[in-house]
Design a protein that fits this description.
Elements lengths: L11 E9 L3 E4 H4 L7 H8 L3 E4 L6 H16 L8 E5 L10 H9 L5 E5 L5 H14 L5 E9 L9 H4 L4 E10 L9 E9 L7 E2 L22 E2 L1 H22 L9 E4 L4 H10 L11 H4 L6 H11 L8 E8 L3 E8 L1
Parallel strand pairs: 4-5, 4-6, 11-12
Antiparallel strand pairs: 1-7, 2-3, 6-7, 8-13, 9-10, 12-13
The chain binds oxa(dethia)-CoA.
The site of oxa(dethia)-CoA (UT7) has 20 residues, from helix 2, helix 6, helix 7 and strand 12.
């Protein structure tokens, strides 16, 4: 494991959360009518019961914009106050312009600088860290950090190994500079990030980019859909998420015993349980909503954070541990004092 990529402690605080999940629900039973699977396998191997599917005419930026509006309302900030928008996504509306630019247009954040981050399921925590750097260096005071995905557009609905796992949705936070000495609520205490491109082939969408453009000859083999070596990915996810969580806690001067709630990436309930056991965290300190949404990649952590917030599970002063793992491979963890 490489050394933590950031040692700085900047005073950035999460001042509002929001999320948006599409209305359409796709249950395990419905999926089992179109592909050779069943509710029992999906539930016991993953913990997923259903997932949300965006409407055909609903782009990632539409979901991201709604999550952003809700986060801004919660934070009490106007669109004009937003100086930076970062969207973490692997399902952008288009190759370019960035999805963040479409969000800017849709929410009217005329004063923002906007760009996307591609770090798969770790994307939201990567984006949070980038936004912190902007705030720490004094360039910006108020930022929208969004994780949003329309993974239904990247799924091969004939591949039972992957199609049962993923779903659509969006989550957002507003972060704002806080006085470094002040005890501001929602303060991000630490973030660690890591990547290992040597393992890029284990989880990827190989086609549709410059490496393998879609042609009439290859379109049938669906290279522009998610390909994953599930077992290998599983093993790395447990190891890296655990290491990252421990490093982020150490960087914040805390231990797992101080954690009030861990919000892990929601890929598989067995991964989450394995990490929680190794951190010695009881079930009530572990947030899970993958039964309802499956794996929504970069949207997972901000959606879960917003749901935990709305459910009253985040109390002032609580230590919240966020930890993610995804394609790349990439991983990241943040500690937040609520
Ligand atoms: O978000 C980024 C990070 N992602 C992850 O961390 C995901 C990590 N991986 C996983 O969560 C798990 O590996 C999976 C859920 C993807 C797969 O679970 P598994 O326990 O590793 O199963 P497996 O891939 O080893 O497959 C076991 C069996 C196979 O059959 P055979 O070869 O034993 O006859 C599969 O063909 O289960 C079969 N299988 C299914 N059966 C019914 C695979 N998918 C399905 C399915 N329904 N949907």
């Amino acid at each position: 494991m490489p050394a933590p990529s950031n040692q700085s402690f900047c005073a950035s605080s999460i001042i509002g959360t929001g999320s948006y999940m599409p209305e359409k629900v796709l249950t395990n039973d419905e999926l089992s009518k179109t592909v050779d699977t069943n509710d029992e396998w999906i539930t016991t191997r993953t913990g997923i019961k259903e997932r949300r599917i965006a409407a055909e005419d609903q782009a990632t930026s539409d979901m991201a914009s709604e999550a952003a509006r809700r986060a801004m309302t919660a934070a009490g900030v106007a669109p004009e106050d937003i100086q930076l928008i970062i969207v973490a996504t692997v399902t952008p509306d288009m190759f370019f312009p960035s999805t963040a630019c479409f969000v800017q247009k849709k929410i009217g954040a005329v004063n923002a600088v906007c760009f996307d981050i591609s770090a798969a399921c770790s994307g939201f925590l990567y984006a949070l860290q980038v936004a912190r750097h902007f705030i720490n260096t004094g360039n910006r005071t108020t930022a929208l950090v969004i994780g949003a995905e329309k993974l239904s557009s990247l799924v091969n609905w004939k591949d039972r190994n992957t199609c049962v796992l993923f779903g659509d949705g969006a989550g957002a936070v507003v972060i704002r500079r806080a006085d470094e000495n002040a005890d501001a609520p929602g303060r991000v205490l630490s973030t660690v990030m890591g990547s290992d491109g040597n393992l890029a082939d284990l989880l990827k969408v190989p086609g549709g980019g410059s490496f393998c453009p879609i042609t009439p000859e290859n379109v049938e083999s669906r290279p522009n859909t998610i390909h994953m070596e599930g077992r290998e990915t599983f093993k790395h996810a447990v190891t890296r998420m655990l290491e990252a969580a421990q490093q982020a806690l150490e960087m914040a001067g805390l231990t797992a015993a101080d954690v009030s709630l861990v919000i892990p990436h929601q890929a598989n309930a067995r991964i989450i349980t394995a990490i929680a056991e190794r951190l010695n965290l009881p079930n009530e300190k572990v947030f899970m909503n993958l039964d309802k949404y499956g794996n929504t990649s970069a949207a997972t952590i901000p959606v879960a954070l917003d749901e935990a917030n709305k459910a009253g599970r985040l109390k002032r002063g609580d230590v919240i541990l966020l930890v993610a793992f995804g394609g790349g491979f990439t991983w990241a963890s943040s500690v937040v004092r609520w």
